[in-house]
Amino acid sequence: MQAKRDPYRYRFPIEMRLVHPNIDHLIFNRFDSPPIFHRDGDDNPDELSHETGRYLVPRRRPKSKPEDRPLLSDHPYVDKVWQLHVSEQMILDDEEKNPDKYKKGSSTPSPDSESVASDEDSVEYSEGYIGKALVPKMILRTNIKELDLDAARAERQLNNKLKKEAEARGEEFRVSKLRRHHEMDELDLIHWRRSLEEREALIRDISCRRSLGLPVEEPGRYADDNFFGKDSYDPTSPLYRYDYWGEPKNSEKSRKERETDTHNKSIVGRGTVWYEMSYEDTIRQRMQREARAKRMQPKEAEAGLKDEDSDSNSNSDTFIRMSGGDKKSSSSKTPLVNGTESSSLSDEGMFGN
Asked: What is the CA radius of gyration of the chain?
């Protein structure tokens, strides 16, 4: 039956059968089963593996047993019913505020609402302000033909009539639940009963399997954690939350750490140094030295032009006086390393790549 339905599912296509030299023995000897060429209709991989007689792909064993899980009570159609309920109430509120728009008896608030929106266009996401806060906003487009405005209008008129009668008697009238609320409760109850029946059927199936000595779960469906090995990818683990482990090497934080480490190594070899001056103060002193060097360059040029005709002795004395004064001024700002002044501190050593 399977071969008649799709005879080329488990064979190579024409292009692969005309390969020369023939490599079928190299391909089929590697696998226990022939290859599968997936088609567009193959939505269930478990069904496909069952049809081909293959082994099931093992999954991680769930932590909780299916018979111990809580019952489901949220029907998937409840959200749609709530959307219809809110739309009906908004139209009725608009009828009470603007009765002139609906004097002709038209149930549609506007001709644009008659257009049927597709599932993709029925929800629109945007942002809006509530006060000064910008919050996400979701706009639901509802087809007017899906609303039951006549029943909602009759219910609103009955509630208004009962409210006036209660006010005349001096009592307080409060609407407990509307028609749509009862409909949503019925859907939730149906869903809860279906979930309860599924659990009871599952418990009966487990008890029958155990009494007959059959395996409780399908053989090969689940495997223990040690089957998958250590350090396997787990998207729920915070270890794999990002694409890297730890801080990336090109970030600002790691760059400062590398510069600090280079600064320490330039002072005393490769050992880690705990010095009194902070890293920010060292950077500030480096900038001050660079600014002082820029200011000294034009002064040295002017001094060189004035002393061109002087002898070498006066030049050497001037150079000694300038260098000595610079050393004296800069030595007071030299960082302290282990209580001593470091004379090997230089820009090239600190910040070299």
From this structure: 41
- Average pLDDT score over residue span 307-315: 55
Residue with more model confidence, 92 or 324: 92
CA distance 61 to 203: 19
Taking the C-alpha atoms of residue 137 and residue 129, their distance in angstroms, rounded to an integer, is: 9
Angle subtended by helix axes 78-97 and 179-212, to nearest 10: 180
Is residue 240 over pLDDT 90?
no
Dump the DSSP string for 197-259.
HHHHHHHHHHHHHHHHT--SS-TTSEE-GGGS-SS---TTSGGGSSSSSSS-TTSHHHHHHHH
Q: Band of the pLDDT at 268, cuts 50, 70, 90?
A: low
CA distances from 86 to 82, 93, 96, 140, 155 (A): 6, 10, 15, 10, 14
pLDDT bin (cut points 50, 70, 90) of residue 346 is: very low
In sequence order, the 6+-apart residues with CB closer than 8 A to the CB of 9 are: 2, 36, 37, 39
Q: What is the mean pLDDT of the chain?
A: 76
pLDDT of 36: 77
Handedness of CA 8, 9, 10, 15 (dihedral sign): positive
- Alpha helices (H) in 29-76, listed in sequence order: 45-51
How far from chain centre, in Å, is Cα 249? 23
Q: Find the helix or strand (DSSP H, E) in which 116 lies.
A: none
The count of C-alpha atoms lying within 13 angstroms of the C-alpha of 243, restricted to the half-sphere facing its C-beta, is 2
Angle, helices 179-212 vs 149-168, to 10°: value is: 110
Q: Which two tokens stand for residue 253?
A: 């934080």
User: 58-89 burial string, b = 16+ CB within 10 Å, else e?
Assistant: eeeeeeeeeeeeeeeeebeebeebebbbebbe
Encode pLDDT of 147-177 as tens digits. Answer: 999 999 999 999 999 999 999 999 999 988 9
**What pLDDT score does 260 carry?**
83
Cα separation, 114 vs 140, whole angstroms: 15
Q: Is the pLDDT of residue 200 over 60?
A: yes
